[in-house]
Structure prediction request, 138 residues.
Amino acid sequence: MRRFRSESGQSLLEFAFASVIFFATVFGILELGLGVYRYNMVANLAQEGARWAAVHGSKSSSPAHLSDVTAFLTGRASGLGINVTTSSNGTSVDGPYALASGVPITVVVRSNYMPITGFIARSANIPLSATATMIVSR
Prediction:
């Protein structure tokens, strides 16, 4: 009868339940932190691209085309897969130096965030997007 009243495995069982909750919380916080970090990177890249395009207009010493903005941002992405869309006056511009002075330039950076831990659906891609607009100054 004493065998059924023994509590020798109770601590182990309580630890198992508590550790599952603890580690789920820790990995959930890490996953959320990585998502916020990635979104901040995307927003920063959009801002950098708009600023870079604003100072490399057709009157600057090193004029650039809209495709140069994409190349600049791809080099700054540091392992982040991005899709860059640039437009001026609401439409995509073609030409050797399409960044005319005084014209607004809009840079949209998109990226997909794939969760690592699986606490958020592992097969789900979370789309991240940021837009920045500036006036070409040169």
